[in-house]
Amino acid sequence: MRQSLALLILMLMIVGNITKKAITSIQTSQVSEETTQISPEVIEVSQEAASLCRLVNNKQGLTVQKRPTPNSPKVGSLNPNQQVKLIPGYLNIRGPAGRTWVEINFPIAGFVSIGFPGNEINLIECSEVAENHSGETSIQEENTEKYSGQNPPINNVPTQTSPTSDYTLKTDESLCREIDSKKAPRGLAVREDATRLSKYKGKVPVNSQLTLVENYQLIPDQNGERRKWVKISYPLQGFVSAGNLVECD
Q1: Assigned domain for 201 exists
Q2: In the prediction, which pLDDT does 129 show?
Q3: FRET pair for 184, CA 20 to 30 Å: which of 94, 108, 137, 156?
Q4: Same domain, 66 and 128
Q5: 128 occurs within a structural domain
């Protein structure tokens, strides 16, 4: 009788332990599933916030307009490499002359032009700079803060001219140029070298601006044609016919 009672107690203890382990396993599984469901939401929000960060990728900076058109009132300006934030759910807006605009809400609320279709490079993603220039972003941000509201200092390079040089060295303070719509109504081709026979690198649409390289030179055509060329750094690097350019207003 005592042996039967002891055996019964032992069986009850074994069944109790098995039940306890099963309940614990179910609870652990539920917690794991709930945690898995929460994590992707947090990551998604983080990525969405990061995707709204942009850096000004224009050496002249950008003008912030009240509306997506260059004729609307100016509400402020942005320095090169300055960080901005796009509005949530932003859209690319096609404005006058085919220019593309986006709306920002930091550091100023308004609209900025990001360029023309196929060449919308006035703003670049912050993450792109962080990946390609590790360590440089923080330096750029420091400079932007330090010189906020004013142009960063430019080192003056002495100009030297050689009497035997084939080129005419220019030291104009303003490197901004516009395409003469009368001479080049369809825009301007950018070449790899100072000749129309060199590799075609792209096209700059009419009514858009270009930036000459510092200490630019007017270069004679390499094939003896009656034209001068000049090297540009924006919106892409290469050579354009200098006779089709006028100074920016």
Answers
A1: yes
A2: 53
A3: 94
A4: yes
A5: yes
Least Cα distance to 140 among 232, 57, 50 occurs for 57
CB 114 within 8 A of CB 101: yes
Among 76, 108, 143, where does a domain finish? Answer: 143
Task: Compute how many other C-beta atoms are within 10 angstroms of the C-beta atom of residue 172.
Answer: 11
Q: Is residue 16, in this structure, part of any structural domain at all?
A: no
Say if residues 232 and 210 touch (Cβ distance below 8 Å). Answer: yes
pLDDT tens-place string over residues 5-25: 777 777 877 766 666 655 555
Residue 248 and residue 172: Cα distance in Å, rounded? 12
In the structure encoding, which two tokens stand for residue 160, read together? 């030297």
Compute φ and ψ for 218, nearest 5 degrees: -85, 115
pLDDT digits (tens, 9 = 90+) for 89-122: 999 999 877 889 999 999 999 999 999 887 889 9
| Exposed/middle/buried for residue 120 (C-beta within 10 Å: 0-12, 13-18, 19+) | middle
Q: Are residues 121 and 60 in the same domain?
A: yes
Burial 83-100 (b: 16+ CB within 10 A, else e): bbebeeeeeebebeeebb
Q: How many domains does the chain have?
A: 2
Query: The tokens 């670049």 sit on which residue?
Result: 124
What 8-state DSSP symbol labels residue 78?
E
DSSP label at residue 197? T
241: domain CATH number is 2.30.30.40
Q: Encoding tokens for residue 81?
A: 């490499």
Host H or E run for residue 246: strand 245-247
**Quick check: is 124 in a domain?**
yes
Q: Which two tokens stand for residue 48?
A: 């969405």
> Which residues touch 208 (CB under 8 Å, ≥6 apart)?
116, 178, 179, 187, 235
pTM of the model: 0.37
